Amino acid sequence: MLFYVIAILVIVMDQLSKYLIRAYIDLNETFTLWGVHLTHIENSGMAGGLFQGNARLFGVVAVFFVIGVLYFRRTGEMKGALIDCSFGFLVGGAIGNGIDRLLFGQVTDFIIRSGGILNLADHAIEIGVFLFIIYGVVRWFKNKH
Q: What is the pLDDT of residue 54?
């Protein structure tokens, strides 16, 4: 259940934030909200603006990624709250950006950070990867003893 709650929350928050940015902030406009600098850009590539014009291809990759995670969850090898949280953030982020890629042919980004301009789905994916690494380290230590 934790997996689904996190994934759905990530998707809703991501899509709502992107809708608000697209509706109220002009393209390339920069503004500050609660001390956070934001700029509305549209990215038709992947992270860092690489491979521009391939958004729909990456949308299809996101679909296969989600299918893969759902398959691994069904096999039952990886269980527990930590891995459910990790997969929830990863799947929510993948679906959030996948929706943009498949529907619009580009992803709405707006959160300025060193290394680029991101969105909530990108941050969810980063959290998911971090939790997955922690899960792997914990599992390694448990198997070692």
A: 57
